[in-house]
Design a protein that fits this description.
With 57 residues, the protein is mainly alpha-helical. The protein contains 1 helix and no strands. Helices cover 49% and strands 0% of the residues. The radius of gyration is 17 Å and the shape is rod-shaped. The protein has one domain (3-56).
């Protein structure tokens, strides 16, 4: 398996380090979708935290 599919390798998914020596510099649609979904979830959590803080004030 290519290390670009191994989250624990420390490499980003956009930079594949397979034995070919080729590094891709783009995201697949699936990778971009996953990245954006994760970002959206982080934003929602941050929004919840801000709302909780506002409620405390």
């Amino acid at each position: 398996m290519c290390c670009c599919h191994n989250v624990q390798s420390g490499h980003s998914s956009s930079q594949c380090c397979c034995n070919s020596g080729f590094q891709r510099s783009f995201l697949t649609k699936e990778e971009e979708k996953e990245m954006l979904e994760n970002y959206l979830e982080q934003l929602r959590k941050e929004q919840e935290g801000v709302q909780e803080r506002l409620n405390e004030l």
